[in-house]
Design brief:
Elements lengths: L23 H4 L7 E3 L19 H12 L9 H26 L1 E2 L4 H4 L3 E2 L2 H21 L1 H9 L8 H8 L4 H10 L1 E3 L10 H9 L4 H13 L3 H21 L30 H19 L1 H4 L8 H6 L5 H22 L3 E3 L4 H15 L19 E2 L23 E2 L5 H14 L4 H17 L12 H12 L10 H4 L9 H4 L6 H4 L21 H7 L10 H14 L14 E3 L5 E3 L6
Antiparallel strand pairs: 1-4, 2-3, 5-6, 5-7, 8-9
Length: about 600
């Protein structure tokens, strides 16, 4: 897992973002302690692995244009892809500046003959490092998870560039923000080595930056201040919506003018490109609400050591409030996950020739060859497009093919956090005490989408932690939603999770040509209907057993007890109807700042 295995304590040591931020606590650790950059502790970094880290930015630009100018639903969420392309360019530029500053020499007319450029002044070196930190700061503000992954793949010289700027300019906001991510702390000890004061100071000086609130929310969540994290994300969402309403460019990919050709190559100017920030914020707030729901599980269930059923009945009232909180936070998580899903599209009638065209054109870009094929014929009836959120409404669309049909006739917009979100969505429904029949229907829909999840040739598919948790919940509850097959079988990859296997003209997955790993096969080819999980998988996701209901197999244990032991909780459904307005992208948003 990406989550650091650190103990959660209520009092963390103070630190600052100045150049002298090597705290006494770190110095007392001794030389034997492994110190690594703080950004290497960030959750979900494995979800962003893929070829986008290694191919050229020119190839990324071409893939971004191809992705956007292709028919709906687009292969990768356009805002996300545009953002990772920006991040790659910013980090590549920052690396070049940092290397030049470290060498102390710049370009000069005599460099080709002498082998050395012009010696740089201290002021010029500082200026170059400041420019590098500005680019890194912008990258982190776009998407701190993707930026952390890209920087880990880049030169280690970036780790100290902000620290070098702070030695000369201790008040530099960009350098302070970047140094927060790059400060060396003991490995797997982020909680005890991090405070929010430094980020709070930066936010006070730059109060209109929703990305800064997102970063502080992530730190609050690590330190289990989930209510504070949710408030930061809610404030950031309000800023984000306001800024989107003032922005003259597109707020969503569908707002952009479409290319009349099926697969065009019209470049999209940066000011026209949508941002993925709003989707990031919904994901984080949904995750924190789910964690809060899980935190309240401990107080909502009796201890197994108390075997006196009469005594448990006498004290049932003390479980009432925690149980209401579990359901309340779970419902808020469901709502935010659905908001994230609304940014992604699904088609049940995807023409296979479209997928073939996409694969061949992407192949030409990756291999630096010219595509010489013809434009595919437009189908007489355009494919039906649904937002993914619509698939989870009370009545699902009626034109969906059978679950065991060929997935090449369906299409799903890829997002690196979608599979994690879908399984968390199911867990939230279990905590919200949605009926087993409805959860079963949602689970089959999730299985359908998991089969279609494919980010080639840009992203590499992974098995997220929530998948292991969900499988173990099914196991511990004896398949309480009565699925006919194991979870592995429902999400079976036998038809080909990487559909490029069926589309590539040589029959070889493009992910292999890029050096990426093919997604792992199921942990078991057969199994009980409860979704049996292997011992190896259990070990991978288990921590200190039963100690932390907010993560891993501990979450599975507490959720399964909730499903088995807690009667239907009432008193959480009725609420005042909140005012809503239509956002700039046509979606309804809650204006109250609180979640239902």
């Amino acid at each position: 897992m990406d989550t650091p295995n650190s103990s959660l304590k209520s009092h963390a040591p103070k630190s600052s973002l100045s150049s002298s931020s090597d705290t006494p606590m770190l110095r007392q650790q001794g030389d034997s302690t492994l110190l690594i950059c703080r950004n290497k502790h960030w959750k979900y970094i494995s979800a962003y692995n893929g070829a986008w880290l290694s191919i050229t930015t020119r190839q990324l630009d071409l893939l971004g244009s191809l992705n956007f100018n292709s028919p709906l639903p687009r292969h990768v969420e356009p805002a996300l892809l545009f953002d990772v392309i920006k991040i790659r360019k910013l980090i590549d530029d920052a690396t070049e500046l940092a290397i030049k500053a470290a060498s102390g020499f710049g370009p000069s007319p005599t460099a080709s003959s002498t082998g050395f450029g012009e010696k740089l002044s201290k002021a010029r070196i500082l200026k170059m490092r400041q420019q590098a930190t500005q680019k890194l700061s912008r990258a982190y503000k776009i998407d701190e998870i993707a930026s952390s992954v890209s920087i880990m793949q880049s030169s280690s010289i970036l780790e100290d560039v902000a620290k070098d700027v702070l030695k000369r300019e201790p008040s530099d906001l960009d350098a302070r923000y970047v140094h927060f991510f790059h400060e060396k702390i003991p490995s797997r000890n982020l909680v005890d080595s991090t405070t929010i004061e430094s980020l709070t100071d930066i936010i006070a000086e730059s109060p209109r930056e929703p990305a800064l609130l997102r970063t502080r929310a992530v730190v609050r969540a690590f330190k289990m201040d989930l209510s504070g994290a949710i408030q930061d994300i809610t404030d950031a969402l309000a800023m984000c919506r306001f800024q989107s309403s003032q922005h003259t460019g597109a707020s969503k990919a569908t707002d952009l003018p479409q290319n009349p050709k099926l697969f065009g190559d019209r470049p999209i100017r940066e000011e026209e490109q949508p941002s993925s920030l709003e989707g990031q914020l919904y994901f984080h707030r949904a995750s924190y609400n789910l964690n809060l729901a899980c935190q309240n599980l401990v107080g909502s269930l009796p201890k197994h050591s108390d075997s006196n059923n009469n005594d448990i009945a006498d004290h049932e009232s003390r479980f009432e409030e925690p149980r209401k909180l579990v359901k309340t936070y779970a419902k808020r998580a469901i709502r935010d996950f659905l908001s994230l899903f609304s940014f992604l599209d699904y088609s049940p009638q995807w023409p296979p020739q479209y997928s073939s065209q996409m694969a061949l054109r992407a192949d030409a870009i990756i291999n630096n060859t010219r595509y010489r094929g013809s434009e595919p014929a437009t189908p007489p009836i355009p494919p039906t497009i649904y937002p993914v959120s619509k698939l989870f409404e009370a009545v699902a669309p009626g034109d969906l093919p059978p679950l065991d049909s060929n997935p090449l006739t369906e299409m799903l917009t890829f997002h690196p956090l979608l599979i994690e979100s879908l399984h968390c969505f199911l867990i939230a429904h279990a905590l919200a005490q949605t009926s087993a029949k409805e959860i079963s229907r949602h689970a089959l829909m999730v299985a359908r989408l998991v089969r279609l999840d494919n980010g080639y040739p840009i992203f590499q598919s992974i098995k997220p932690a929530a998948l292991g948790t969900w499988i173990e919940i099914l196991n511990l509850t004896d398949n309480w939603i009565q699925l006919d097959q194991s979870w592995d079988a429902l999400c079976m990859f036998s038809v080909g999770r990487d559909v490029s296997q069926h589309l590539h003209r040589n029959g070889r997955p493009i992910t292999q040509e890029l050096g990426g790993a093919v997604p792992e096969p199921p942990t078991s080819s057969a199994g009980r209907a409860s979704g049996g999980v292997s011992t190896k998988l259990l070990r991978r996701w288990s921590g200190d057993e039963r100690s932390n209901p907010s993560s891993g197999m501990d979450r599975a244990y507490w959720v399964s007890r909730w499903i088995r032991e807690v009667p239907m909780v009432s008193g959480t459904a009725k609420r005042k109807k909140r005012a809503k307005k239509t956002s700039s992208d046509g979606r309804e948003v809650d204006t109250s700042g609180k979640e239902s």
